[in-house]
Input
Amino acid sequence: MQAAAPARAHRVAGPASASAWTRRAPSSSRRAARALRHRAAAARAPHHPRNDARAPHRRQLSAPGGAPPARPAAETRPAAPRPPRPAAPRPPRRARRVAARGAAPAAQAAAAAAAGLKADIVRLSGGRYGHDLDAGARAAVLAKVAELERLALPVAVSVDALAGTTWATVFTTSDGASSGKVGPFVAEVRQEFPAGAPGTYVNVSRLGLVSAALRGECRAGEGGDLIDLEFKDLALRVGPLRAAHKEFAPGSMRGHWRITFADADFRVFYSNKGNLFVLRRL
Output
């Protein structure tokens, strides 16, 4: 039996050229050899345009330090200058906040000044509503009142808010019955606003056991600084007993108060006859 021929070698003995080797190699080997030739050619000429077009990654790996070369910046057109934006007006709410922050210190200073002036008026008036003061002392009180009025603090008197309060006279330029002056005597004067009857007030004068109560009605007038009045009746008592009572005809006893200063515990007003009254809350 004849022996089988040895398998055909892929590579012949002795030196052989790459072309002879590739002719005998299978198709896959030929492709590998072709790739080796392309790589060798690329190594010999790394900057050849053909190599650059086919293998851009080789360019990147051949950059110094192994880092890919920076791409050239894209050509851009210079941006056209934007027109200046007009300044937007300050929102009204913010403006109010700024105004409030600026007005707060001024209001605090005015309130502190008012507190000092009120204390001065009470001290200078004495305990008899100014009836026992000489001309110089009365002028000093009037000067303090004028200074208090010049503070121009807001005046907004609510008749309903007066309900349930009692006020004592501090100073007056009146000599009538509401001033407390009875001949050579000075009665104690109170102005009471009953809690259960808004819009009603009573001027009560007491001298010993005798008291007189002048009842009236009040309502807000025009402008916010006026209170319109109408007196209804007058009652005279001796102790607990009613000694006399007089009712006034409707519309016959009317007047008003013009408020020039008012806060929670101090009121300054002028009657329709021009008399000044200064009252403090009890």
